[in-house]
């Protein structure tokens, strides 16, 4: 058995990273908005929205993929419109894979952001206000920097989770080599082929190393920020 | 003129505050803890909306619910110093100081250098805020508020979170702010010593309402104030003028009313205005001109009023010529001396006793 991954396996790794990155970039601003809404705003249906955001944690991933297929498929209400008006196709593409992983990791990201937003002292925002900072100014110069550790922890956790998403991806965008076959899908495929054990082992090891470095990176970063803030 | 008239209901608590104070000057909002001072601060700063009311500072109208005027907090130009320093932990001291300055509109009346000098924080610029002591943090917070070029500096118990040593470290800086900058200040406190040292105007609050107000000297003998600060702290605050140092005794002479006080030598120019507090418990009353006494300060006056105080003692008000002082004596002494309004008396106070609580109470005002 050779330890060195094949070109296909590298492609799967590369694709996984690309999908996870797109997924995080796409969901970050939306998660920030939802975290802010759920923490700072009191409105009718807030509890319902809160539950809705958390749904992907408790639903079978295959079901999430299925719902995405209904909504964003070529004949779906959103997918059809996107394709007609903007020429964007999600189904069977890596952008679609990114959307599926984004939906699945969205609750993780919102949770981390909410926790850090709750720990930002409102008194500091009041102080900024009396010093002449308007709402957006306060958010950009005081709130956001202070919740940055949570935002980054959320982003790294979501990124790591996105690397491993399987059910929603394979249901929504299928398993196309070079386009939607991410690491877990490649691993699954390898296990389906007689004699694919070596490939599977290599892919598993790659997944392990990726996950581990993500977690270590996030911990290192959190410590650095804490020290910077003197906590 | 700084004028406030606001109402705000919060659950079962109702704030109903009304006062006016001259600008520039320091108006102290004084009352026991929980009397609604902090709610009033929030309303003045614009961090909390009043139900009804009007707030005006000189010629700018900040709030008028009748005319639907409500300038948001970020545009009120009120620099607030809170109980806790509230420095931004992700910025250096210099960046904290710059925060308000960058957002201020000209004209600028105070520069970074002046503030750093005035508050003694020049050497702290590159520090992170968590490396500062409590007193240093509060001084930086004061500087940050000042540099936002406020039209009013609102201080909400800025010393309450500090221990006694830190408090006496910061207090002199506040005095020099008052004396060297013309920015009007509103000082909220439940500590009468701080009020004595800083305020020119006093507003008393109790249970959410403003109950009395006026010049500090005029307010010093107010009955409502007496009930808040307790009998031990009662005492007239009078204006004095520094006369020549007495060549013979080495004491500084101060003119108060028609009389004169001799106190331990002061670093004050001839003609400087001072405020002197004469605690009622430190005064002795005589009905004939006293002789052969060690007491240096004997002031002639006329009894104007006798009020029975709790605990078998009377408070005697004495007019010393344009100023009122007050002495606490026992009821027995009142009877024996046949004290009554209109009776000429001599009030005695030891110079050392005066010096004993001079610690800042007696201070020069520009």
What does this 3D model show about the protein?
The complex is a heterodimer of chains A (231) and B (366). Chain A is an all-alpha fold. Helices cover 79% and strands 0% of the residues of chain A. Chain A has ten helices and no strands. The longest helix of chain A is centred in the N-terminal third of the chain and has 34 residues. With 366 residues, chain B is of the alpha+beta class. Chain B has ten helices and 21 strands. In chain B, strand 5 and strand 6 form a beta hairpin.
CATH class of chain A: Mainly Alpha
Count of helix runs of chain B: 10
Quickly give the CATH architecture of the largest domain in chain B. 3-Layer(aba) Sandwich
Largest interface: A-B, 20 and 28 residues
Q: Report the CATH superfamily of the largest domain in chain B.
A: P-loop containing nucleotide triphosphate hydrolases
Percent strand of chain A equals under 5%
Widest sheet: strand ordering of chain B: 7-8-9-3-10-11
* Rg over alpha carbons of chain B: 23 Å
The count of strands of chain B amounts to 21
Q: What does the secondary structure layout of this molecule look like, with pairings?
A:
The complex is a heterodimer of chains A (231) and B (366).
Chain A (H helix, E strand, L loop, with lengths): L6 H34 L5 H13 L2 H12 L4 H10 L7 H25 L3 H9 L4 H30 L2 H7 L9 H10 L4 H32 L3
Helix pairs in contact in A: 1-5, 1-7, 2-5, 3-8, 5-7, 5-8, 6-7, 7-10, 9-10
Chain B lengths: L1 E9 L2 E9 L4 E5 L6 H9 L6 E6 L2 E5 L4 E2 L7 E4 L11 H11 L8 H8 L14 H14 L4 E5 L7 H17 L4 E5 L2 H7 L2 E6 L2 E7 H4 L3 H7 L5 E11 L6 E5 L2 E5 L9 E7 L4 E3 L10 E13 L3 E7 L4 E7 H6 L7 E6 L1 H6 L6 E3 L1
Helix pairs in contact in B: 2-4, 3-4, 4-5
Search tags:
heterodimer, A: 231 residues, mainly alpha, MetI-like fold, B: 366 residues, alpha+beta, Rossmann fold, OB fold (Dihydrolipoamide Acetyltransferase, E2P), 2 domains, six-stranded mixed sheet, five-stranded antiparallel sheet, 21 strands, 24% helix
